[in-house]
Amino acid sequence: MKVYVKTFGCLLNKRDSENIKGVLKDRGFELSSENDADIIIVNSCGVKLTTQSKIVSYIKSFDRDVYVGGCLPRMVDMTQLVNVKGYFDTNSILKIADQILEERYENFSDTNEERIGKTLVRNDKDILIVPISQGCLGNCNYCGTKIARGKLHSYQIKEIISEIRNHSFKKLYLTSQDNGCYGFDIGTNIVSLLREVVNVDKDFIVRVGMMNPEHVLIFLDDLIDILKNGKVMKFIHIPIQSGSDKVLKEMGRKYNVEDFKKIVSKFREEIPDIHVATDVIVGYPTETEEDFNKTIELLDWLKPEVLNVSKFTPRPGTVASKLNPIYSKEIKRRSRMIFFKKY
Questions:
Q1: Which pLDDT value is given to residue 85?
Q2: Average pLDDT over residues 273-282
């Protein structure tokens, strides 16, 4: 049976798809092109409504059986899509072959899968994507990913190091929903992990994925020290989301603007060539014009090397989905103001 795996969303989703392909390969399925496949597997993303709409349109474009995994099945009703043969969540990836063969429709689990060390079919032989945890410690009022991926479950350092040693690559991407809280549930942290990673006797460079500010503050000096290592990419991804402390509190974020500034200032002081990436949500339902102007002021100060701007869209089951939204035209106006600044 020929299968094609289509991936939407983040780096963690891309790694999940490599695991999906590995499971299928081990069970004798043939990985094929989209046109030749008997079955389409969609690894979905539920972060934005716009992405959800693209995924739904993609699914509807086929007259073949489609299985849907990733974040969406926990967030929206997949049964409304007539050609969806089955769906599974982020804790049921290793069971996808059984689901197809047994023709089961739903496969959900509340137990985190241990996918480290399992067969992978990698998309790029030069890049190794390693998930260091699943879930997070946050409860952000706008985020549907917590609904999909659940509470923090960190992989042991020895398991991660074993995964790294078992593959060849030039670039190593450490990824998760929030790298900043890695290990808090097992008595360690991202700095301790990185110290072990850079001691692996291979020639590579490692990039550390997104870390929320409130966690970075706990080990800021040690994190800066390890990023000075020649094997670690001089790059940090620290999301701010809003330049207004009021909005940050209403979002359920656990830091303030001064916390964020302290982190960035210390990194730039200690590592002058550091590249800073950040995320901003425009048009959160409680965001006033004054709040938005504070975001502009913060970005003018920050001048990020990488800026990800998202227009707020409500996600099912979240607190923010119950708030009165800002008019879409106003959200577009605000996002354009940031876009045309071209930081």
A1: 93
A2: 98
Please say if the pLDDT value at position 281 is more than 80.
yes
Q: How far is Cα 145 from Cα 286, in angstroms, rounded to an integer?
A: 21
Please report whether residue 113 resides in a domain: no
**Dihedral sign from CA coordinates of 235, 240, 241, 242:** negative
Angle at 250 between CA 245 and CA 255, to 5 degrees: 45
Global pTM?
A: 0.94
Q: How far apart are CA 104 and CA 106, in angstroms?
A: 6
Which domain CATH number covers 75? 3.40.50.12160
Answer yes or no: do 98 and 228 share one domain.
Answer: no
206 near 172, Cβ under 8 Å? yes
Neighbours of 63 (CB within 10 A): 7
* Residue 59 confidence class, pLDDT cut points 50, 70, 90: very high
Residue 342: which pLDDT band, with cuts at 50, 70 and 90? confident
**Which domain covers residue 139, as residue numbers?**
127-339
* Residues 273 and 319 reside in one and the same domain: yes
Same domain? For 96 and 194 the reply is no
